[in-house]
């Protein structure tokens, strides 16, 4: 039986702040890109924007936070309905050319093998012991599923800061997933989303997605170097 010995990780304040916030950012992106947003979801992230610093202070983060905070109370219901309709138009209307799944996106844009791409994603989920409860028949390579995978691994790593070896393995997995999957298509997907919408919500989400993935990879590499 393999024994895991505790070896706590010393974390500088800047990295500690990033570690504590990054899972929330992945969850925010996943929540809004998974299905049409309900009023309760928009209200939840509006409260978080007003009471915490979980939304990054980047261009996309500021745009998103400002939009959520500025929704007039008397118009809240109608604005939420408009954003739900915009989601359906962007991702569920076959007339709109947005592709929210990596395999199909990279097959169309790069000529990649969609089946092999999705199979590799599924294998990485299995290797990490992550099993999703798919309530809406989501594809494993949907942008929201890939973001949720990162959110789960972030949470697990946060809970294992006293196990250096485990943190190393989790960091390597997240770096590999960003390099071989999310960053291979999500920035371009974000650019297409920006061109396809005038909604401040989805424009902010797209900008945040593009900014945060690059930043998170940089931070993971720094974190990995500090653990070695």
- CATH homologous superfamily annotation: TorD-like
Q: In total, how many domains does the architecture comprise? A: 1
> Which structural class do the helices and strands define?
mainly alpha
* Mean pLDDT over all positions: 91
Described by the principal axes of the CA atoms, the overall outline is globular
Number-wise, the strands total 0
Distance between the termini: 25 Å
Which sheet architecture does the biggest sheet show? none
List the uncertain runs.
none
- Total DSSP helices: 9
Structural notes for this entry:
The chain has 228 residues and is mostly helical. The protein has a single domain, classed as TorD-like. It is 72% helix and 0% strand. It has helices at 13-34, 39-51, 59-70, 76-92, 102-110, 114-127, 143-158, 164-196, 200-227. It is globular, with a radius of gyration of 18 Å.
Question: Layout of SSEs?
Answer:
Elements: H1 13-34, H2 39-51, H3 59-70, H4 76-92, H5 102-110, H6 114-127, H7 143-158, H8 164-196, H9 200-227
Helix pairs in contact: 1-7, 1-9, 2-3, 3-9, 5-6, 7-8, 8-9
Question: Brief description of this entry?
Answer:
The chain has 9 helices and no strands. With 228 residues, it is mainly α.
Task: List its salient traits.
single chain; 228 residues; mainly alpha; TorD-like; 9 helices; 72% helix; globular
């Amino acid at each position: 039986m393999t024994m895991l010995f505790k070896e706590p990780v010393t974390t500088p304040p800047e990295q500690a702040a990033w570690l504590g916030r990054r899972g929330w950012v992945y969850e925010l992106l996943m929540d809004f890109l998974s299905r049409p947003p309900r009023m309760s979801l928009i209200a939840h992230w509006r409260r978080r924007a007003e009471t915490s610093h979980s939304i990054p202070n980047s261009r996309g983060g500021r745009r998103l936070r400002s939009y959520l905070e500025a929704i007039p109370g008397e118009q809240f219901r109608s604005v939420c309905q408009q954003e739900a309709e915009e989601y359906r138009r962007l991702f569920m209307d076959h007339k709109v050319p947005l592709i929210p799944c990596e395999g199909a996106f990279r097959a169309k844009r790069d000529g990649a093998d969609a089946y092999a791409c999705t199979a590799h994603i599924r294998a990485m989920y299995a290797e990490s012991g992550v099993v999703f409860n798919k309530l809406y028949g989501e594809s494993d390579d949907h942008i929201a599923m890939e973001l949720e995978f990162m959110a789960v691994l972030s949470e697990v790593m946060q809970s294992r800061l006293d196990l250096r070896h485990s943190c190393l393995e989790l960091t390597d997995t997240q770096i590999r997933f960003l390099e071989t999957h999310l960053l291979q298509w999500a920035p371009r997907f974000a650019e297409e989303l920006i061109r396809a919408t005038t909604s401040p919500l989805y424009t902010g989400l797209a900008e945040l997605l593009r900014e945060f993935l690059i930043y998170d990879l940089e931070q993971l590499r720094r974190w990995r170097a500090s653990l070695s």
